[in-house]
Design goal:
Blueprint (H helix, E strand, L loop, with lengths): L3 H15 L8 H15 L3 H10 L3 H11 L10 H18 L4 E6 L6 H14 L6 E8 L2 H9 L1 E3 H4 L5 H7 E3 L10 E4 L1 H4 L2 E5 L14 E6 L8 H12 L2 E9 L12 E6 L2 E6 L1 H9 L1
Parallel strand pairs: 1-2, 1-7, 2-6, 7-8
Antiparallel strand pairs: 3-5, 4-5, 8-10, 9-10
Helix pairs in contact: 2-4, 5-6
């Protein structure tokens, strides 16, 4: 069992580096994740403390930060959200802005299910409207989950979570024919992957460097809930600077913007709660 004082030291370090908050009430989660690191590295707690706190070993710090993030995800997570975004945001974009490329940013893409789900929706639409053009930027703090996302390889269990049989057949290739169906792996086809750019990204970085300055749709789902109020406010301010004049921001179902009326206004589309720039913020974007 790891002492509460030791867990507090790790929690403070994680907060400083990633903005993720571990309170005493969920120290048990942090303890479980640290124990997982110890098992992976076959090392004692004292050796880990020395490596992280005293020696500041980059490999151990990276593992600690990686384990701190919550990478729970699935294909088409909250399906009504995807349906609403397609019907009320993405499809109208192509109908009213012919010739423009739809720019999307999946801020915390985890192992890639969110951006790939978006791409599948858009590719299905392109079967009817072939000139619909889109690009997706997918970012995450964790190098480990980004590697999995870039590879686009998923287990049988993972593709069964939220993915239709039609999309599985249309956009995945079976990598092997193992006797045990549970062990079968599937890979996203290269054509679908070609629309997505994966990049490491830290929301707490003082300056954001992105390959594209503005986006028509930003998904920052189930990220801010783990940040403290000050970091949450600063992240939302920075996100607003990367929205197009009539761009859309969507957060997780348990997240909301309540204290930035000068920047965001509520915008309900179908079954999805989204946000648009307030008039003053839109004016600044238009001038920029």
């Amino acid at each position: 069992m790891i002492a509460k004082e030791t867990l507090k030291i790790f929690a403070d370090l994680i907060l400083h580096e990633t903005g993720i908050v571990f309170k005493e009430s969920n120290f048990y989660q942090l303890e479980t994740r640290i124990e997982h690191i110890l098992q992976q590295n076959t090392m004692t707690l004292d050796a880990f403390i020395r490596g992280v706190i005293t020696e500041r070993r980059a490999d151990l710090l990276a593992q600690l930060h990686d384990q701190a993030t919550n990478n729970e995800t699935s294909f088409f997570r909250d399906p009504k959200v995807f349906q609403s975004l397609f019907a009320h945001v993405m499809k109208p974009f192509f109908e009213t802005k012919s010739g423009r490329t739809l720019q999307i940013w999946s801020v915390a893409c985890s192992t890639g299910q969110e951006p790939y789900s978006l791409a599948m929706e858009l590719e299905n639409y392109r079967l009817l409207k072939k000139d619909a053009s889109y690009r997706i930027l997918a970012t995450d703090y964790s190098q480990r989950v980004l590697k999995k996302a870039q590879d686009g390889i998923y287990t049988q269990v993972e593709v069964q979570r939220g993915l239709s049989a039609v999309n599985l057949v249309r956009y995945f290739e079976k990598l092997d024919n193992r006797e045990n169906a549970v062990d079968i792996r599937w890979q996203i086809k290269a054509q679908l992957r070609s629309h997505i750019e994966f990049k490491p990204f830290n929301l707490l970085a003082p300056a954001w460097r992105l390959p594209r300055p503005q986006f028509d749709l930003i998904l920052c789902r189930n990220v801010l809930i783990y940040q403290d109020p000050e970091n949450r406010r600063e992240i939302l301010k920075k996100l607003s600077q990367h929205l197009t004049e009539d761009g859309i921001l969507i957060l997780g179902c348990a997240e909301a913007i309540t204290n930035l009326p000068e920047i965001y206004v509520l915008n309900v589309v179908g079954d999805a709660t989204t946000y648009k720039l307030a008039p003053a913020a839109r004016a600044r974007t238009a001038v920029a």
